[in-house]
What we know:
By secondary structure, the protein is an all-alpha fold. It has 12 helices and no strands. The chain is flat and about 70 Å long. It comes from Mesorhizobium mediterraneum.
Amino acid sequence: MPCRHPGIVILFSSLFVxxxxxxxxxxxxxxxxxxxxxxxxxxLAARAxxxxxxxxxxxxxxVIALWTMLTEQNLVWHVVVSTTRVWIAFLLAAAMAIPIGxxxxxxxxxxxxxxxxxxxxxxxxxxxxxxxxIIWFGVGEETKIFxxxxxxxxQLVLLVADDMRRVPQEFVEVARTxxxxxxxxxxxxxxxxxxxxxxxxxxxxxxxxxxYLIIAEIVAADSGIGYVIWTxxxxxxxxxxxxxxxxxxxxxxxxxQLLRLFHRRLFRYL
Length: 270
């Protein structure tokens, strides 16, 4: 019996092919369906009493708590404050990590001098450095920005250095053969080749920066999503805690999709 909807079959069939190229519509449909199934299962488990509400409230209670926070607790202001802190720290980390990472791979004296120290520092847990941060910067905005920067810079600089190392030596040699200077090799060959992976690494490390938000905003904070979550935890308001977590996740999802779109538009040839 012939299929009555061959277009739908063709649309979704590529999803089951190894490294197949599915249409954005098919991928979006699967993403929405998977998320809906998870939320529905969560709601059913909570309503059936399988999960105690004080540990994991139902999605409907989380939505109610989120609406209350939006209308009565100035949640939008806290979101703006947290987003500003994250972007300041991330842009500062990127502005420092990109040139340093490129220099580390381009000139071995720089890599030999900096790489062991960066490897040492990036394994230090950020929470362990909170007391030192307070001693150095006090309890103001500087400490929060520093902790977010700390969780981003040392990871990003090594990713940039690795991107630079992957530039094919043949490209550099050909550029030298036709008379390119070191600056031209850097701008016209290396940066153009590493551009797609660099944007991807920036997208990934921006997500890492968000993961340190709670740590940064429990340091004598009176604003921000981390502060809201920490205050709700103190009074065992689990729906509000979950609502704050969902807000961070939604901001991350939207930001990630926008950066993916920017990547696709900027590098159409991939």
